[in-house]
Specification:
Order of helices and strands: EEEEHEEEEHHEHEEEEEEEHEEEEEE
Shape: globular
Helix content: 10-25%
Number of helices: 5
Distance between the termini: 38 Å
Largest sheet: 14 strands, mixed
Oligomer: single chain
Radius of gyration: 22 Å
Structural class: mainly beta
Number of strands: 22
Strand content: 35-45%
Length: 336
Amino acid sequence: MNDHDEIKLLVNGKELKNYLSYNVAQNIYEAESTFSFKTHLDSDLSKTVKTGDLCKIVVNSVDVFNGIIDSAPINYSNDGVVRDIQGRDLMGLVVDQYVQSWKTFKNKTLSEIAIELLREVPIVSKQAISFENGVESLNIVGDDINPEPGQTVFEVLNNIAFSRGVVFYIRNDGTFVFSKPIKTQKKSYSFIVKKGERTYANKSKIISAGYANDSREHYRNIIVVDNSKSSKKATSFVDETAPTNKTLVVLRNDGTSIEETGKNIINQQRFNAKGIRYTVSGHSQNREVFLPGKTASIKDDLLLANDSYVLYGVTYRLDKQTGITSELLFSIPAEN
């Protein structure tokens, strides 16, 4: 275990202590991130925590999570009185909030639509919006956008983002991000496992590991049918890494770059088909906190992996059996 790792839950700016267990899960490719902290009901703060409170999670002085408390039940047994504090990051509010005005967005850029829709969401209405990895060029006017009754703000924005080859998520500092699927960056972590000799680079003790290899949703031929007002055509893409000659047909209704849509579909299905999971002790490597979006060099003879991989999901845990651990989910970087 990395003895210098420390996690803190701050509720309305005050630190909650004496954790019995915790589980903090972040994933760029999932709509919302979640957390759960169990603590003895032995302080004024643990007694006064309530749903709707804003909170922050910090690992080794690095902000990893800005969120809101959804649930805070109290239970007791022979082990004492325990409070189980649960919640999500601020994207959870965007997932919950339904669109209230069903007007048509005409001649609006992605940022203009996002600003107007997020204005309806409590608390996050003034959060910053960032365009990263060259996505600013896709912040253009597409076809008319028509939110329907029953759609959430997240559904509308996520659909627009996907059609433009963009991922919509929230950064650990609370900034909403439109970005292309993550590409290789400077290596922040390193894992080395040799046959017959379990050596782990940089003191990261691997407790367990796994390699995903699933072709059920991995299509070689992708046909994107553009059903927008400005264009009625079908464009074909080929993913040479797919093992079988299956065909996927996708209908889209946005007059922006169809090339970006095809690239995004290929990158997403590769991400789903191949990935590496490590469970390691601690929450950092060489004092570099494990954070989604960073890159690792992995040379693992047992998993037959030797490449650069992007960390897209992290779960920080504390429990009686394993102590302080992190589950790390890696995938191959996106291609241009």
